């Protein structure tokens, strides 16, 4: 869509949502400036080099095969998914001091593994427990819009009605909820769970899990930044938004004030910051309006990322492992494909729910992770940690409490020249990398529609 005029756009936030939005707008011919407070791009999906020259990630990220708009973005910037990603067609489950299981996830790419996994692994998930998941997940076949009614229920509420198998809850549903959205099943919206199942069900041949073939900075964000700069986008890092200036007489945004006092004026303003960063910057006169009041009220979930380097190989798997009965619900060995490390394994672990551990020091958190994972995988218990990195995120995504997912805002705000982009805005992939790209793309489409109606002329 080519705009009828050429208004200037400024985007606060250089994560996936802001960059995806900038890409669409620049390709349509609009002049765009992107502001990012960190010295690197990518936001919560970003990676950076530490003092040892090692890549550190904000948290473990997987790439489900259902991610279609993120795939398209990679192709557009000259990074075909086959070069950026490697694919796995199974998912391992472990329990501390209990059974483990390997389930195939794709009947096309791994038909035998998928069949045997469904029929076997009965010491981990018995036949009745497996069957109990069918009525629980059956609503995922409905159109996405009809799933929104499940946002009034938690996963446990829906499980009580549709399944009731304790084994299915503790060994399948709970680790999924903790791993995917950092929230326990008693708080997790059933709409969110069914929404993820829906996206897989409508794309069954893409029921795969992808890992990255390198740091996301070099594989994605550097090429994306180059793509944007070639199209005239100005990218400014290490600049932080301090205040959003609002004129009550015209009911418009008049500028972004940066930390340090610089005033940045444009015709159109896009906030691509996390909701919890945007909320305190909402101009005071706007906070009582229902649209902005809902943003102020959105719940958030913390997360802790733990990255561990070992003196030996502790797993030969390159895929993802879910851990039931633990608040270390998912880990991945990244030493072969993502961050090559010849001396042993390099694990990336998510601690979730992280709320009780946020006040712990790094040593206590690492000891807790090693105790839980070591009980599930004896090779981890026998290995020595040679390096550790712990990153605490007080806010990491919108917590999918009942009602929160349907309360997420649209990309269009009541202020005509203010737009929102992010995985926390309305789109079908909730808090995720695909959600961020979709939120950014939807924001760009909304801006271009407004420009064609005369905004900024």
UniProtKB/TrEMBL annotation:
Gene3D superfamilies: FAD/NAD(P)-binding domain. It comes from the Bacteria. The keyword Oxidoreductase applies. The keyword Oxidoreductase applies. Its cofactor is FAD. SUPFAM superfamilies: FAD/NAD(P)-binding domain. Residues 16-448 form the Amine oxidase domain. InterPro entries: Amino_oxidase, FAD/NAD-bd_sf, Flavin_amine_oxidase, Zeta_carotene_desat/Oxidored. Pfam families: Amino_oxidase. Keywords: Oxidoreductase. This is FAD-dependent oxidoreductase. It comes from Nannocystis bainbridge. The lineage of its organism: Bacteria, Pseudomonadati, Myxococcota, Polyangia, Nannocystales.
